[in-house]
Design a protein that fits this description.
It comes from Arabidopsis suecica (Swedish thale-cress). Helices cover about 40% and strands about 15% of the residues. By secondary structure, the protein is an alpha/beta fold.
């Protein structure tokens, strides 16, 4: 009978890449990310099914960048909010993948969320030894760069290159509408259906305007995640320090 330690190496692995907090460093080929992650896991002995997902407000990311990463098999998840939506993506993945599944979150945030999942039996993996309590974000950027530099042969040997038109994508703005291929993803983002859903999330179309109450709430929740109380005046509706709750775990599951 396979023991717990052995089981994790054959279990499913999910990589959730927060492309805002851990962007590809200037001068690096975005196509290196997927191959480097796959080689790392292979070298560590993980042989189970693997999904790498780039998560964020993807309308803020260039088409060339997105096409480059999807060409190496990285899936896309376009979310309405930067912080709490990514927490929901993490929880949605765990709802569909129970322990001893392996989870890697590439970000300088979400350590509390990941820590709680570790206590539930998930095997937490890190591409580099980043500790947000011990190092500032600049150190994380250096470690991220070093990780991408560590394997110079990864891109040339990657077997998932050239797959941008078959890679899955999800639009969480539209209640988890999904599809395949980068061109289809771009077509969806310009569709009337997507435009209507965006108007429901942002009735005043303030998605890319100056910080609003929504952005302030996001900042508040991220501060709580990091274990730091926000300033007394950081929330427009409160004159005292408020500790926000974690996003709810239960949400419509994606079809598989």
């Amino acid at each position: 009978m396979m023991n717990k330690d052995d089981a994790k190496y054959e279990a499913v692995t999910g990589v959730i890449w927060d492309i805002k907090r851990c962007p590809v460093p200037t001068g690096f080929d975005a196509r290196r990310v997927g191959p480097c992650i796959r080689r790392l896991l292979e070298n560590l002995g993980y042989t189970g099914p693997l999904t790498i997902t780039a998560v964020g407000i993807l309308t803020d990311v260039s088409d060339d960048f997105l096409r480059a990463i999807t060409s190496t098999g990285i899936t896309l998840d376009h979310v309405p909010y930067d912080y709490k939506s990514i927490v929901t993506v993490i929880y949605n993945w765990t709802d569909s993948n129970p322990p001893p599944a392996n989870l890697m979150v590439i970000s300088t945030a979400f350590d509390r969320t990941v820590g709680e999942l570790s206590l539930e039996g998930y095997n937490i993996l890190r591409p580099f030894g980043y500790d947000p309590l011990a190092f500032p974000s600049t150190n994380a950027e250096i470690l991220w760069s070093n990780f991408l530099l560590a394997d110079t042969e990864a891109l040339g040997e990657d077997k998932c290159s050239g797959k941008s038109e078959s890679v899955p994508w999800v639009c969480s703005v539209c209640e988890d509408v999904d599809g395949q291929g980068f061109d289809e993803f771009k077509s969806h983002l310009s569709s009337r259906k997507h435009e209507l859903e965006v108007s429901k999330w942002f009735p005043e179309k303030q998605q890319h305007s100056a910080p609003s109450e929504t952005h302030a709430e996001e900042d508040q929740e991220e501060a709580v995640e990091a274990g730091v109380e926000s300033p007394l005046d950081s929330h427009p509706k409160n004159s005292t320090t408020m500790l926000s709750k974690q996003p709810k775990r239960k949400r419509k599951k994606r079809s598989t």
